[in-house]
Each structure stands twice: as structure tokens, then as C-alpha cells.
């Protein structure tokens, strides 16, 4: 499995980072959507969180079902994490907590 993390940091261009498509394609063809796990490493990104997410979501040659796998479902499958009705709320609560921590860190660091 491969974690697709920090792509925009390595891009040769700005959003939507089309220079990354050839690299993503190589990994996609080699590993498939069930063994690719998306991530950001937002701490070193040259763009916003939204751009980190959207640049990947906007790639036209990856089917939507495969994007869903790469963006989280494949990792859940890999870990044998069974989704139930409480899972979305847990994920959203965790995301809110992480965002709050990032905002607090930015305030402390003055960034």
C-alpha cells in the first residue's frame, strides 16, 4: 500500500497541481484504489486545506468510486474497520477536533 501524502509540496505548478497527475497515474496503475491512501501533511503544504483536498477530487480520469476508496474507504477496508451508523459522527467529531487544534497552533505561532 502507498500513502498519497503531500502532493502539492512536490508540484511544479500551482493549484490545481496538474503536474502531479502523471505521478498519481503511475501509483494508481501500480497499486490500484484499494492500496492507495490519501493524506495531506498539511503542515508543509504551499496551499490551503481545501486546495489539498480539491486538487485530488478534481482529477477527471479517476472514477468517483475509486476517489472515495482512496480518500478513506480503502484504509477502512485495509484496517477491517466496519462502518456503522455512528462512524460518520465519530469521523466528523475527530475532524472538528483536529481543525480546532490547528487553529489554536496557528494562533500561538502567529501564522
Structure report:
The protein has 111 residues and is mainly alpha-helical. 56% of the residues lie in helices and 7% in strands. The protein starts with a strand and ends with a helix.
Secondary-structure topology with pairs:
Elements: E1 2-5, H1 7-10, H2 21-31, E2 36-39, H3 49-57, H4 64-78, H5 87-109
Parallel strand pairs: 1-2
In short:
By secondary structure, the protein is mainly alpha-helical.
Structural class: mainly alpha
Taking pLDDT < 50 over at least 5 consecutive residues as the criterion, the unreliable ranges are none
The portion of residues forming beta strands comes to 5-15%
Number of extended strands = 2
Q: What's the quaternary structure here?
A: single chain
Radius of gyration: 15 Å
Structural descriptors:
two-stranded parallel ribbon, flat, mainly alpha, 111 residues, 5 helices, 2 strands
